[in-house]
Every structure is written in structure tokens, then in C-alpha cells.
Amino acid sequence: MIEMLIKNGFVFDPLNGINGEKMDIAIRNGKIVESVNDHKAKKIDATGLTVMPGAVDIHTHIAGGEVNTGRMIRPEDHIKDVVRKTALTRSGTGYSIPSTFVTGYRYSKMGYTTVMNPSMAPLGAKHTHEELNDIPLVDKASYPLIGDWWFVLEYLQKGDLEGCARHVAWMMETTKGYAIKIVNPGGLESWGFGGNVHSIDDQVPNFGITPREIVCGLAKVNKMLNLPHSIHLHTNNLGIPGNYVTTLDTMKALESVATDGRPVCHITHLQFSSFAGDSWGNMRSAAEEISKYINNHNHMTFDMGQIIFTDTTTMTADGPFEYTLYQLSGHKWVNSDVETETSGGIIPMRYKRTSAVNATQWSIGLELALLVEDPWKMFMTTDHPNAGPFFKYPKIIAWLTSRKARMATLKKCHKKAQRKSLLPSIKRELSLYELAIVTRAGQAKALGLKEKGHLGVGADADVAIYNINPEKLDIALKYKTARRAFGNAAYTIKDGKVVVKDGEVVQHVDGKTIWLDVKTTEQIKVDEEMKRKFKQYWTVEYDNYPVFDHYVKVPEAITIKASV
Amino acid sequence: MSVINSVTCPICGCLCDDIEVTVVNNEVVKIKNGCAVCEAKYMGYKSEHRIRQPLIRKEGKLVPVSMDEAIHKAGEILANANYPILYGWSSTNCEAQRVGVELAEEVGGVLDNTAVVCHGPSLMGTQEVGIPTSTLGQIRHRAEVIIYWGCDPWSAHPRHLERYTSFTEGRFEDSEWMAYINKVKAAAGKKKLASARRVETPKKAHDTVAESVVFNKPPEILQKEGRKLIVIDVRKSMSAEVADYFIQVQPNKDYELMQAMRALVRDEELDVDEVAGVPVEYLQEVVDVLVNCKFGIIFFGMGLTQSAGKFRNVEVAISLVRDLNMRTKFLIMPMRGHFNVTGANIVFAWQSGYAFGIDFSLGYPRYNPGETTSMDVLLRGESDAALVIASDPGATFPKRAIQSLVKHPLIVIDPHMNATAMLGDVVFPSAFVGIEAEGTAYRMDNVPLPLKKVVEPPKGILSDEEILKRILEEVRIIKSQKLNQKTEDA
Amino acid sequence: MQQKLHVTLLTGRTIEQGVGKEYGKSSPEYFAACSMVYMDAGDMKKLGVKNGTNVMVTTPNGSVVLRVVKYPRGATPGLIYIPYGPWANAVVSNATTSIGMPSFKGTPAEVEPAPDKPVLSMEELLRKEFGR
Q1: What is the ipTM of this complex?
Q2: Is B40 an interface residue toward C (CB < 8 Å)?
Q3: How far is A65 from chain B (nearest CA, A)?
Q4: Looking at domain B120-195+222-334, which CATH architecture does it have?
């Protein structure tokens, strides 16, 4: 029986309404408990320190075929960021696409304890899980890409929602996935022959269905399956000037999906979908229009996709979009279409302050976060590594909590972007409480992870302790100190064990892979149909397709009872 | 007797996973669906060339020893080496490859796999320009024009055409298998007719299936509906025989040919009449077929990676495909050789950041082809020990590299007494992955597949993974003993 | 009739080599598949060698005696093709041009008749080249 007591820290636990109260956190056997034996427990003196639940990242590309191809083609990205082997840790490399061990260490050093890999091609799911196994110190999960899967397109086109739901349940279990991921719905199948869709009502060639039908159909399917997270959506027309119209159309279309008070959809890296204007020359922010809609509707959640000015790598399942980036930049370009299922692309990208477009993009992310009033709706991410590497998160924390910080950066941006930016007129600075929401509580809630993102009794003992004394340090003023503090946790505790101390890894734990075991009523019929169709659709055998149990080193299966 | 279905064949990059294996009394007696090489492996692996127990070279001869003695010797060699090479990895499973990375990191050595003599240049090409590609099913479903450039699937990836390209049916394209059969019948028919009329057939080296396939102008057949197969090579390979059109390019001139095609794709005019031995007017016709098709794919092999230009050839081939994407949908894919060479690159990359030629001697991964690639380390004579596993550099490396390899202690892990094992100092017999040991492998298009265990290995024979783990453990013990000794002495 | 012919050396796979290696590198199948060289019929005539006799292939890196076989699919003047294996590697060029890959295809070579010289077995070849 391992007991721990975190004493006397300033606790921020929004899911339980605790806002900076000085209190003790008691841990026994990896869970938060009411109290422990004061004499026997290991004590951590958190006097003068900020105590938060371990951070949660709802969308970060860290494992799988696409991420790894990115690693393979960018040796120049690694050579500048090497990590030596120590007695306790393995060697590796960064920078924008770190090797797996380094990914775990760096997340943990910032106080992160749960990370979600948002794009998994089902055919390559074994690969994703093999890599997740090699990411230490954090719990993780992965979302299978289902939005352009032939079975989904065919069932939705027929109007058979129940059939679709059963097949999606099969896919979720087979790939050991956590949520329904949709990228540029309809666009990826079109890209199979080099095409794309340009509005949510375009017909997908050869399948007679529209993106609107795919998104709404899957949102309904999600409800029928009772999945803990809503559908996770990367919108059509991502990255194109003027695309905010498509984003608004999508959000409006989803109003028709009945909600039981919980969100029906999560739009990810919203910054990339909030462009106004009609060309790169007059491209500007649509954060005002988008945030206005969000402030008046409650059926969705979002994450930022905040730009960091640095050399990074874009990688998404949005094959046609990545090709557009290639046409713009001429940079090395990877395309990876996956039979029957999805697509993908990779391009290195450098975001510069001196580029009016990049600087505007940088501003958009922050405008969205600050103009959306309810922090439970808009979370902090960079869509790592697309808008920036994850270990630069402390910079974003500074921009969100300190007007001084973001104005200092704005002043170094292209003059055109400075003129267009809404930031000068925004005074809002997130408090520590709100910060805890956008980096942990809100994310965990949207994901439906009941034991994460909070420090109430029964929660997983995942705790982050930072060198910030809220009574003495004004993080809005001293943002550089705050940045350092959030980049090097005083303590990161995982499952009740201290894994990071003063920004250094001190213990190894494997972390669990969370997946959904979705139980529907007609499992067997689906298996039979799959076997028949397998040889036609895929080039692998039905028997060899699933992620077998031994592929997941430390599994945590959550049983879900579907309503079909 | 048991019949095992959906077995994944452990030989080439096709990684066919529809093999049916019949086992009686722990022996494979029948194979269904496999090609000639697959059958040879499953039926022939139990040859007399199997190593029965660990061996150590004593006074010039390899003598049987206990596993413990061999493990200790191997551990000593690696723990005491300054700059060892750990090479091979392509014919074993990902589980063993992972231990390999850990071992290389522990001993500060150079970790490299067979890609260095195969598609290493292709990986380097993608590091320059990226690669527009897909999984093989996309080809099966959509490909209208299929090009094999500098590779001979009929010889090296025998079921490639029938599983993934011309001779298989997809959602949007039909199989050309019947058309091929009819071609063969027609040629056979012609021969019969000719001999019946007792017409003097001119003494040719070999009667080809379709005569218009010889180095000649593009045939009418390239304008037909349905799949079209084009083979480009320096000599008429077996694959060229089944092609709709064969282009014979001069040796070491693929680079020029591809650059010429790029110009034509971009609607530029060429000032010359002929490039690399191919008339420009024929090239123009071929390029027209490429830009007007719905979906095309180029598969390429050693013809590009091993001839003059090497990774630059691959770079240009990829650039050609990038250019074609301005006009239509076109992709490119390397024909990976060993069944898990792709897996080795993938595992190395996710754990270290680099796919091959990784130097751990400074405590962190370093990659610089020409400096840290095992071939160059050997040619410069810089290594002082080596571990070779799941490969046969003794049969595949140039002479001078092997001479450097045998100058220093050589540990070999392999099921067969292959050329490298014959040259080794410590030899470990291991189980055949995909027959006697299970695990994961990656297909040439990066799709992961499970390998099955269909029979038990002979008594005392361990898997690669187990042997490596034991060597790693031994290395750590020896190193900590050395450290304790040092602190005691101090 | 020439005494020596200048050619370009290619090495690569054949299906027989693939099958042979699965039987084991010391097997007779492997020996038959790999200790041979394909030559153009016209070139063989120039050199005065018959199908199935022995020739010696020499490059700046070494020389090896092989059984010559007429290339069955069309003309390949000036090219010879040896399947991957220890015999090919006795003559293949090391030159990696600083990227780790030797020049397995496209090196200049010379071929001459060698009717009285034997083709070495793999054991004999390894012993000759490496002393083991």
C-alpha cells in the first residue's frame, strides 16, 4: 500500500470548484483518497506551490505511420536536438517530431499525464499502438480515422444509421481506439483520384454522399454508441482563406443533431478553420464571427491549434490540404493514402513573425481563446506538431495569461498582421483557474475521462505541481517566470508515483493505453459481413487486421454499452 | 494434422498474408497460395544447413559450446568493444529489432540494417523531396497505369502483380489477368500454326509473348481501356515479358531519362532526338499516356538505387511523380526486399529518430550517410567488433567490407549456416521468424502484419528476441563488474 | 574471336537465386543459381564461348570464375548479369560514393574464356577471400 500526501499547496481543481484553496491532496495506491495516515505516507511539501491535476492534451500527433514517416524524412529536424542516454532514460532526438521516449519525458516534464493521439489509420493501428507502448510516463489513447471509411460512406448513403453504428463499434474495438475521428469528410475519398470537396454539400465522387451527411450521420452514430467523447472533427476547406464560412456551415448543420446536454462535436485546431478574406493577400481573422457563434451555442467544444513561430512539421490525414501546402512552399512533400480508409500528408513548415499570413494565424489562435467566453469550450493545443512543437506550450500559457507577453510578441510581427490583429483591443487574461480548465479539466471533461483532469476522491493520482506562488507571483506581469515554471514541473506525479522532480525524470512508469470496448447487440452479424467483404476491400486478411491484445502493453479497456 | 490459414509469408516485401500451411507432426507438409520462393522456404528450411547449437571459433574451427558460454563470450566482445557494428535486422521481427536498438545504445555502437545495400538511397531520396505514396490496396483499386522501373517483380516479388497490380481486381479497375492469358495463348497458337505449316521460324534467342514488346515504338495497346503495364529496365527481364510496353534504357542513364520525362510532363520541348537510348518521340507518346490516365504508380528497385546516381536517381523519380501530380493522380513506391526491412527502419526511427546508419557512440543517436553507415565504417576499418543478425553480409557485401568484418570478433545470429556464419567467431542458432517464432513485420507499404508460429523450433533453439535479451543482460553485468572493479582499484 | 571483352557488370535477383537461398546458402541449388553469369548471345560468339562453359570475370576489385549462360530474353550487348551472392561480391565495386551503398550495378568489367579453371564452391571461395 503506497500512500502519499501533498501538503499545503494552492490547489486549482475546476471540476470540483476549487480555486486556489490551500489544501492537502491524499493519495493511496494510485488514486486520490479522502485522507491517509499522516505518519506513514510519503510527504511532499507543496507550500507556496501551485497544485493542479495532471495536464491533458486532447490532440497531439505523437505515434503511428504518419508521425514516423515524418521522423524518417527529417533528419535535419533531429540533428539540432539530441537527447543523451542516462541511467534512467533512453536516448533520442527531437525537435518537432521527437522520438517516442523523448516524447514521454518532455510531456511529463511539463506536468502532462494524459495525451491523445488524434489520427490513426485503422490499417496501421498496430503500428500506432506499438509506438504508444514506447511513450513512457503518460497515459494515452488514439482516435481511428473513420470519416471516409467505405463502410461509413455506404451505410450513411443508404440511410442505415444502425448498420453504420454497429460497424463503427466494430472498428473502434478492432483498432483499440477511443473516439471517432473525421478529417475533411468526403475530401479524403475524393483525393484517392486527386480531387477534393469544397463545401459541405459537394457530392463525394463514386459514393453519392455529402460531407454534411457524413458529419451529421456520424454525430448521431456517436450518440447511439454512447461514446464518452463526441466526434472529433477537422473541417473541410481547412487552411483556405474564406473557410470560416464552411466552419460556420458545419457548426450550424450540427445543430440538428439532438443533444442530451453534452456536446455533439469537437472541432479541432480551430485556428486553421477561421480564415476570412478570399486570397492570401487579403486573408484576415474570422475569430470574431466564429467566437460570436460559439458564445451563443452550446453543442460543441474546440481546441486552439495555436501557432508557434518556429520550424515545425505539418502532418494530417488531409492529403489534399498537404498537397496545397506543397504547391505553396515547394518543400518536400509526403502523401500517404490508405486503402478503403483515409489519406495523409506531411510537409515541413516554418512559421515566421515576418510573414503577414503566419502572424495573422498566430493572432487568430489567441483571439479565439480569449473571445470565447466559456473556457470549458476552448482548449489549449498546437495540434502538435502542425502549428508548433508541444514542448513550447509554456509560451502559449504566457500569451493566454499575460497581455504583456502577447503584445511583446505582436510587436515583433509583420506590420500588416499587427494592424489586422484584434489582440490590442483584448484585455482579458486567463486566471490560473481558467488555465487549469483549458489545459486539463476542460479537456478531460470533453473526452469523458471521468478519472482524469481533477483531484476529487476516486480520480487517478495524476498531479502536477508548479513553482508558482499565486499569492506572491503575478503571472500576468512576470510571464517569463511563469513560462519557466510551467515548462519544468516541480513535481509530476503519475499513478501516485513521483516521475519528475524539478524538471528531471526520476522514475519510469509505462502509462496505460485507454481504449473502448463497445458492446452492441448484433456483434456476430457484423463479423460475418466483414469477413465476406474483406477480400474485396483490403489487401490484408480479416484474421490479420485487428489489434490483438498483445499489441497493447498496459491496456485500460473501458466497456461501453451501446444503444444499438 | 492442422491447416493454418492467413499465415504471413516471411520472405519478401509483398508480405502475402493469405498463405495456407498444413502441419503434420510439427512439420510443414503443404503450402497453398505461396509463390515458388515461399514454398521453398516452408518446405526447405529444415535443411542440413541448419545450425544445431551455439558455436565458438577455437583454433580456427567452429566448435559446439553451451548457450551460457556463447552468451558470455558475445557479451564480453560487445562490452569491451569501442565501436561495434550491429547489422542486419531485416529478416527478424519488430520485437527483436527493439532489443537491437537498446543493445546498440547500451554498447555505443553503430546500428544499421540491410537497407544500406538496398533502399537506403531511397530513404535518402525521400529525405530530399518527400514521397507521394499510398498503401498497396489503393493501387489495386485505382491504378490504371502501372510502371515497374529498375525492378523485376516477376523474379523478386513474384506475387506482386497478382495481389496488388495488373492481375488483380479493384473497386474501380479490372484485372488484366485474362488479357495476359490470352496473349500467351495467342503466342502459343502462333507457334503451333507456324510449326504445322513447317514455316522456318528464324533462330531467335527466345520467342517472346508479344513481339511488339521489344524495344520499339509504343504499341496501340497503350491506348486501350483498363490497366496498362510498362516496364523500364536495362535488359529484358521476366517482368518485361508480361508488360504491355518495355522501354530499354541505357545502363546508368535512368537519371537522364527521368529528367527528360519531367520536361515533357511540363510541356517543355527537348532539343535532342534521343535520351538514354530512347527516341524522344516515343517518350512523348508514353508521357501522354501518363498525364491522361486516371491514376498511375511507379514501383522502383535496385535498378535506380544501385546504379550511378543512387539516391539522386530516386530523388528524380519522386520529382517526376510530383510533377505528374500537377496533371493527374500519380504515386511512387519502393519495392522493399526483405520481409521486415521496412520494419527495421520503422522501429529504429520511432525509437531514435533515424531509420538506418545510426551511431550511438556519443550517447545519443547520430546519422550521417557515408560516415555512420556500416558499409563505410567497415571500408574505413573503424569498427572493432560486429554482431550480425537476420541477414547475410558475407554473401551480399563487397569483398573489402567483408575482409574488414572478419578482422575483428564477429557474432552471428541466424538459423542457417550462411556465408556470414561460416566466417563468424561466435554463432547462435535461432528460430525462423514467421515459421517457428511469431511477431510483427511491416510490408513494403508500411502496413503492419502479424507473423504466425506454425511449428515448434527444435529443442534448444531460441528466438532472436530471447538471444538478444540475454546478450544485453550479460553486457550490462559485465559493464557493471568493470565499473565496480574500477572504483575498487581507485 | 576476342580474348577479352569489355562489358558493364550488373548484379541482381533471379527467382532461382531466391529459391536457392531458402534451401540454404551451402545448398547445391544456391550454388547452381549464383555461380553463373548471364551473357548476350552475340557477345558469347565474339568471345568464342559455348553455353555452360566457364569464364573469368575481372574488375579492379577482383576476379571470379563462373559458368556462362545465354541470356534468354532478347539482346543485351555489352551487359553481363551475375545473381546476388558471394561470387558476384568477389568482383563488385566497393565505391559507396559516401552514401553507404556500393555500386552493385553498372561497374566496368572484363570477361575472358576460362575453360580449364574451376568454379569454386562457397566454402572454397570464402576460404580464398577471407581465410576462414
Answers
A1: 0.96
A2: yes
A3: 7
A4: 3-Layer(aba) Sandwich (3.40)
